[in-house]
């Protein structure tokens, strides 16, 4: 088996499994006032401190959520509502067309139901938003912008955005910038405090932690309107009893992700480069996705477009040989759509259907790359015969 | 001669089309149990599943895709969803609308088999290295000594679907697998088997109507697509007896929904005799005027060699229709058919499928009919 879909989810780290299982049998609601409650709360707060440290944030800036999607929704909707409440003129939302659906669909919803005007910032052929593009959009009317949201690194093609520069532009105008850093965390330096971001999303299961846990890093001066109302946990912006075992395990994974990042990026980057070379050798016509420049994209991401092939066909053929990867694009009821990311970078719609994303992770080996090297040529040939349906 | 799904020299790579219904699930399970290397695929046939239909019927819902996936899980085979919505719209839905607009009565299931399941899907399957496409149709493929294939009716006549498969040619049949062909379903055998296999779709209701018409309202679907076009309903003498909102909404032999105010002179029910899209007129008359003694059918397709001489066959003229004896002959590439006994309710656009006992000989599309009674048609 060659599991090459770590961007979808990566195996839990043994340390995280250990932390999680250690807490399963421990009773205690972190909101309770008695000894058991305090014990649970201590676990949560220690985890929060660990996560904060791993992400260059203060513990109070870590708002725990059920995952990346919830954190994105809280940031986008919550900040929109609070900013609009403070000034009804603020209804413009600036974003990129290459965002994950958790952001894309949230801003779309604001447009449909909350009177937002959604503006998609232009991206270059690597899917990158340039600071000047953000500035141009803002200066048209700085007073009506509720927020901007641009992902730190793209989940499909791996392109890294100039977040610091974008945040500087937004800060000039006092506009909060949110970034979905789900893919970036653990692969490239992610320092919330130094970034200038107002809010940032991270997720547990993408870094070797458990499913169903994530966090919104949230600057202390921001009070987004909650999406979930209830018991007032997490600074009153995210109610709900905390999942103590998951929080503990998330923190362990977060610590490892931060501590090992440099070594991981170096090693996995080399393996990724080998994989890219192998694919190009077997299928010279394959188009490499994302920014090829050093540091231009995530070290664990290898994204290809195979002209005349359907990504679906390639996936099936590789799957049958034990190679697990992704077409990279989102599914609707299991139906692959042409990638909105590739379409935004100006790729032709037919071409955008022929994508494969290999994403490496902490369990990836040379054998995985060899398996791809062996299988990809015949698979591409076959898929091209099958053509586009 | 042997049943093809049961006797194979080697395990085949089989792509099982899984609609989410009980039949295709059991068919896939049987193919896997027979030792074949089976992969399940659900065809997404509408571009926006949610907007088309809700509920458990038909084959286009998210629920159906989930049911198919769960069946594949239980059978233990890989499963994928393939998007053939664009092809389906072009080849089946648009054709369906165009046929009605032209005053004919299409069979979209037959068209789907011809153009989607055993064309687009089969071609893709073959290209990807599969040997056969497996479906839950009730029909049999038998293989002759020389390797040629024959399509036969299913063992259970009540469930037989060879009519909607009659359009398949030799090549298509060579790659078709129908594991349910020999099933006797009178005692709900398939559902019992599904239950035994742990397939949750065992209790799912059968789908009957057209999968892309959510509520079964074909007239409503057509008027949405084609707009209203009011016209006259006339009797055999040409006298106006009513009005309609679009001639395309009718089928030859239809009795219900005519909303004719004036009673017939004989007080008996009246039926649609003719649909004329050119002047947007629907002609009605007594049941006897529906009797057809002969027809011409076009675009014949043969399972095996085309017959060279006139022959006597049994024929089926619509899905779920009975058998009738005919004499048929190929004249200038068209099929000329005469009936031993007059038949009723023969609608242009439907297929005529010719059988030699249980064997499908060929299929053609009914173009024109000749009535027994002197009716101007």
Automatic annotation (TrEMBL), chain A:
Keywords for this protein: Iron, Iron-sulfur, Metal-binding, Pyridoxal phosphate, Transferase
Catalytically driven reaction(s): (sulfur carrier)-H + L-cysteine = (sulfur carrier)-SH + L-alanine
Domain of life (superkingdom): Bacteria
Xref: Gene3D superfamilies: 1.10.260.50, Aspartate Aminotransferase, domain 1 (3.90.1150.10), Type I PLP-dependent aspartate aminotransferase-like (Major domain) (3.40.640.10)
Cofactor(s) needed: pyridoxal 5'-phosphate
Record Pfam families: Aminotran_5
UniProt name for this protein: Cysteine desulfurase
Lineage: Bacteria, Bacillati, Actinomycetota, Actinomycetes, Kitasatosporales
TrEMBL record, chain B:
Residue ranges constituting the tRNA-specific 2-thiouridylase MnmA-like C-terminal domain according to the UniProt record: 294-366
Active site location: 112 (nucleophile), 211 (cysteine persulfide intermediate)
UniProt source species: Streptomyces aurantiacus
Protein name, UniProt field: tRNA-specific 2-thiouridylase MnmA
Enzyme class: transferase
Superkingdom as given in the UniProt entry: Bacteria
Catalytic activity: S-sulfanyl-L-cysteinyl-[protein] + uridine(34) in tRNA + AH2 + ATP = 2-thiouridine(34) in tRNA + L-cysteinyl-[protein] + A + AMP + diphosphate + H(+)
GO molecular function, one term: ATP binding
């Amino acid at each position: 088996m060659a599991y090459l879909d770590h961007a979808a989810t990566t195996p839990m780290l043994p340390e995280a499994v250990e932390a999680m299982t250690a807490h399963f049998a421990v009773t205690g609601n972190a909101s309770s006032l008695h000894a058991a409650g305090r014990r649970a709360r201590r676990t949560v707060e220690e985890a929060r401190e660990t996560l904060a440290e791993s992400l260059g944030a203060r513990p109070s800036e870590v708002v725990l959520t059920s995952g990346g999607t919830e954190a994105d929704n809280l940031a986008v909707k919550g900040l929109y509502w609070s900013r609009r409440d403070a000034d009804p003129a603020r209804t413009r939302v600036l974003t990129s067309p290459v965002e994950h659906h958790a952001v894309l669909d949230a801003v779309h919803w604001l447009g449909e139901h909350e009177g937002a005007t959604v503006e998609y910032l232009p991206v270059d052929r690597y899917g990158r938003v340039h600071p000047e593009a953000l500035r141009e959009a803002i200066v048209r009317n700085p007073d009506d912008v509720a927020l901007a949201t641009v992902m730190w690194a793209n989940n499909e093609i791996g392109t890294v955005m100039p977040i610091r520069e974008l945040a500087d532009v937004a800060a000039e105008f006092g506009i909060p910038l949110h970034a979905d850093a789900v893919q970036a965390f653990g692969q490239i330096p992610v320092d919330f405090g130094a970034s200038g971001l107002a809010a940032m999303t991270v997720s547990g299961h993408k870094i070797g932690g458990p499913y169903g846990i994530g966090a919104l890093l949230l600057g202390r001066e921001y009070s987004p309107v909650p999406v979930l109302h209830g018991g007032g946990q997490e600074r009153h912006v995210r109610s709900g009893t905390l999942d103590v075992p998951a929080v503990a395990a998330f923190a362990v994974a977060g610590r490892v992700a931060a501590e090992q990042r440099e070594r991981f990026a170096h090693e996995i980057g080399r393996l990724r480069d080998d994989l890219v070379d192998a694919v190009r050798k077997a299928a010279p016509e394959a188009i490499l996705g994302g920014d090829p420049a050093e540091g231009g994209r995530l070290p664990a991401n290898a994204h290809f477009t195979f002209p005349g092939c359907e990504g679906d066909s390639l996936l099936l053929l590789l799957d049958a040989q034990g190679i697990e990867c992704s077409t990279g694009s989102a599914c609707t009821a299991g139906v692959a759509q042409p990638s909105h990311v590739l379409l935004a970078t100006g790729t032709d719609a037919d071409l955008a259907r022929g994508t494969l994303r290999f994403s490496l992770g902490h369990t990836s080996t040379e054998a995985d790359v060899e398996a791809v090297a062996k299988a990809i040529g015949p698979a591409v040939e076959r898929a091209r015969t099958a053509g586009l349906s | 001669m042997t049943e093809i799904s049961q006797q194979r020299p080697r395990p085949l790579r089989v792509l099982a089309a899984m609609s989410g219904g009980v039949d295709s699930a059991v068919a896939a399970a049987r193919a896997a149990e027979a030792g074949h290397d089976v992969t399940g695929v659900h065809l997404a046939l509408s571009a926006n599943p949610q907007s088309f239909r809700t509920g458990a019927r038909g084959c286009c819902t998210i629920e159906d895709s989930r049911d198919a996936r769960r069946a594949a899980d239980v059978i233990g085979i890989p499963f994928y969803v393939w998007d053939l919505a664009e092809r389906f719209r072009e080849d089946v839905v648009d054709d369906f609308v165009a046929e009605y607009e032209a005053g004919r009565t299409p069979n979209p299931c037959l068209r789907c088999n011809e153009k989607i399941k055993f064309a687009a899907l089969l071609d893709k399957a073959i290209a990807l290295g599969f040997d056969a496409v497996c479906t839950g149709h009730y029909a049999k493929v038998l293989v002759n000594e020389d390797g040629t294939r024959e399509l036969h009716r299913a063992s259970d006549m009540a469930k037989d679907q060879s009519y909607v498969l009659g359009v398949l040619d030799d090549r298509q049949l060579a790659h078709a697998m129908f594991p349910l062909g020999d099933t006797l379903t009178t005692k709900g055998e398939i559902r019992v088997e599904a239950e035994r296999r742990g397939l949750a779709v065992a209790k799912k209701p059968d789908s009957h109507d057209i999968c892309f018409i959510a509520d079964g309202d074909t007239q409503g679907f057509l008027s949405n697509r084609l707009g209203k076009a009011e016209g006259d309903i006339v009797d055999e003498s040409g006298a106006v007896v009513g009005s309609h909102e679009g001639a395309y909404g009718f089928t030859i032999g239809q009795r219900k929904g005519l909303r004719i105010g004036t009673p017939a002179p004989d007080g008996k029910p009246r039926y649609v005799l003719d649909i004329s899209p050119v002047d947007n007129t629907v002609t009605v008359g007594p049941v006897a005027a529906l009797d057809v003694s002969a027809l011409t059918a076009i675009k014949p397709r043969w399972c095996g060699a085309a017959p060279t001489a006139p022959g006597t066959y049994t024929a089926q003229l619509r899905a779920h229709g009975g058998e009738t004896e005919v004499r048929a002959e190929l004249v200038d590439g068209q099929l000329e058919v005469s009936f031993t006994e007059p038949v009723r309710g023969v609608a242009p656009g439907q297929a005529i499928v010719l059988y030699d006992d249980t064997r499908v000989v060929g299929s053609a599309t009914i173009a024109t009919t000749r009535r027994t009674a002197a009716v101007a048609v």
